[in-house]
Amino acid sequence: ETVRKVIQSCIGTKFISKWSDMACDIAMEAVKTVTIESSGGKKEIDIKRYAKVEKLPGGAIEDSQVLRGVMFNKDVVHPKMKRRIENPRILLLDCNLEYKKG
């Protein structure tokens, strides 16, 4: 409860006051998601390394949520391109991947 009051005082602007409970819940969930406990029992919270706020066009503020895992956002460049891929296989490359005609 004390943590919630601290978060509310930090984000207590006129704009977000309508959604302050939701914003506090999201902030607390995000912190819990990126908290790492070391072998000595010390907790480390590195939000710059493990968390990112991403704004996507469309939707409402109420649609905001914390997503766990790695997220990729790719623009659809072809009408037949799939919009969602379940259980993808991922290849990490350290070079350009381009198709050159001719």
Structure description:
- With 102 residues, this protein is mainly α.
- Helices cover 27% and strands 6% of the residues.
- The protein has three helices and two strands, in the order ααββα.
- It has a two-stranded antiparallel ribbon with strand order 1-2.
- The longest helix has 15 residues, at 20-34.
- The mean pLDDT is 81.
How would you concisely characterize the structure shown here?
This protein has 102 residues and is mainly alpha-helical. Helices cover 27% and strands 6% of the residues.
List keywords for this structure.
102 residues; mainly alpha; two-stranded antiparallel sheet; 3 helices
The percent range for helix content is 25-40%
The low-confidence runs, each spanning 5 or more residues with pLDDT under 50, are none
Which sequence of strands runs across the widest sheet? 1-2
Global geometry? flat
Largest beta-sheet details: 2 strands, antiparallel
Strand content: 5-15%
Count of strand segments: 2
Q: Report the order of strands and helices.
A: HHEEH
Class derived from helix and strand content = mainly alpha
Query: What's the mean pLDDT score?
Result: 81
